[in-house]
Each structure stands twice: as C-alpha cells, then as structure tokens.
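Model it.
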Amino acid sequence: LLLIFLTEYAEFLHCKGKKFTDFDEVRQEIEVETDRVTGMNKGISSVPINLRIYSPHVLSLTLIDLPGITKVPVGDQPPDIEQQIRDMIMQFISRENCLILAVTPANTDLANSDALKLAKEVDPQGLRTIGVITKLDLMDEGTDAREVLENKLLPLRRGYIGVVNRSQKDIDGKKDIKAALLAERKFFLSHPSYRHMADRMGTPYLQKVLNQQLTNHIRDTLPAFRSKLQSQLLSIEHEVEVYKNFRPEDPTRKTKALLQMVQQFSVDFEKRIEGSGDQVDTLELSGGAKINRIFHERFPFELVKMEFNEKELRREISYAIKNIHGIRQVLPTGLFTPDMAFEAIVKKQIVKLKGPCLKSVDLVMQELINTVKKCTKKLATYPRLCEETERIVAGYIREREEKTKDQV
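Modeled.
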C-alpha cells in the first residue's frame, strides 16, 4: 500500500482502469485524444479531456486548461474560431466558484492581454483573478517585469506570480520537472530584479497560493453548504411522511399534480416575458427582451425603410385641396388645409403602415410561440400533457394574432 501511494501515476476518464506511470505516455495520450475529438487539422472542441494525477508531491487542486484566443483561423478551424473560443472560455470563467488564472507572457504588453481582458468582464472587482506571468527568462536584455510582479503597473487584488516553465528544447531534451523547478528557483534568486521577491515567485508558490485559496473557499462555504444539506434533508423527510400513505390511483392527487404543472408552466411563461426568470440566456435574445426589441428597434427600422416621395405627396395634397373647393377659387394665401383634404391625405399615409405593423405582429406571435415551446420542455416527462398544453396555448395566441391583424 505504501508503494502504491509513493508511485506517481495518472488516469484518464476515457481510459478507465488504465494507470499511466510514464508521463511521456500521458502527453502522447492527450495528443491522440485531442486528434480523435477535434480532428487532425487544428480543430477545437468544448468536450474536456479529464486527467487525474496521483502523487505525494502535488497539492489537491482541480485545474481547467483553456485555449488561448485564436485571431486567424488555420487548418480546419471555422471562420468564427475567435468567437467560439471566447464563448467556450466564458462558460468556465463565469462560474462564481472558480479562480481565474490570467496567464500572460512577460515579453508582451500587459495592456493587450486577452486573459486579463476576459477576466475583467466576469470579475470586475478582481475577487477571483490571479495574474500569472510566464516567459520571464525570454525578455529582452535590459528589461524586466518588476513593476508588474510588484502589482504596480496594472494592479490586481490578488496580485501577480511569476513562473518560468520548461522550453520546448527542455521538453525535447527530457528535462524532468524537478530539474525545471530547481532552474526556476535559481533564476529568481539570481536575477537582480526578482531576488527580493523570490519567495513569492515560482511554480511551488503558485501551487501553495491556489491550495490556500481552495482551503479558504471550503472554510467559507462549508457552513452554508451544511445548512443547505440539512434543509434538503428535512424537506425529503417531510416528503417521505407525505408519501407513506400515497395511492397512485387517487384521482384527487392526479388533479392536484396536473394543476401544479399547469401553474408552473404559467409562472415560467410569465417570467420569460417579464425577464425575471431564474436562468438567463447569454447567447441570444429571447422572450420579453426579443419582443421589446421588435417594438423598439425592428418596427422603427421597417418604418424608416418605407419609400416616401415628397414631390408626389405635395401633388396629392394640392389635388385634394382643389377638389374640396370645387368651382370656388382657391386662395394662394390660405393658412390652413381643409379638414376633409387633411383627413383624406392622412388616411392614405396611415394605410402604408399596415405592412410593417402586420410584420411586427407576426414576429411577436412567433416569439410567443417559441417561448411556449421552451416552457413546455419541463413537461417533457408527460408527452401528452406537453403536447396538449402547447396546442391550447399556441392556438389561443394565434387566435389573438388574427384579432390583432383585424384591428390593424
């Protein structure tokens, strides 16, 4: 048992039961699995490769290695590769229970760091962001990142930690991790700009900081978590008491359950229209927000697109005024347009609004029906109820649509 504990090994979720003790094989397996999931030509995928490493020399941490932002697509990458990677990154770093390691090379301008920019969007107060500065050994001679590491240039609440990783030459030369850590320690101790903060730099210190943050997080959230579990336990015990004398065929229970589901559908629909739902869609507009956009952006846009011939309109006004006066002389100095002529012209112009109005009605009704379909997904366990609810509500919406079009 002691021998097993002291032996470092790794396991992949897609290779259950297989232990990897050679970490060169681990690297090869990551490359093979990446090619299997994304293809052989620089494709991407949001499906993670789950790797667990067991070692007495590392701290307990869960890390998610996210890709860097790709500006120009290569290989089989889609044209919108930058947006896809950005969306993938946001899915992870938006979670409130994760720390963000904003990794930035020291030989680039910190103000242009994509990592810091994305972290700022989801963590504006900097409560979850730790800056990690790499490639300190590759900076031009005579330059250093002292101001950054001392948290003076672009301050972060949790500061910055500098690390020196193995180069590709070191990896190809089979330089092991222990030797790399010793070289990293030597670099910070011997560099005149960093030796005064060497104890707060390097990969081991970064591990220690992350482990401490994990410990603090567990300590802070454990009381609330325990309280939540106790509350759930009491709720389950109460349900158990209720169902002790449960009779599945009791018609009153069926009726009550049906009413509860219909009521929940009504609440969900109302929340999606009012914008007070529990889940917020971050990918597209939907529900009340989309209807609001139709009224305040799409409808005015359709009005602006309407063709308007001022010369023709002035001619129509002139003819209308003359026709109202008949054989009477039309005075050129008249200040007011006759009421009948004014109404005739205005009514003719208002008729032109019918097209954009009907188009807006169609768009609003379609969004309402889409909202109904999203709400009925919670009833998917009962296909017949789901189908009937959608049919009845959609039918009512279409009936209101016809009445609205008649009014238009």
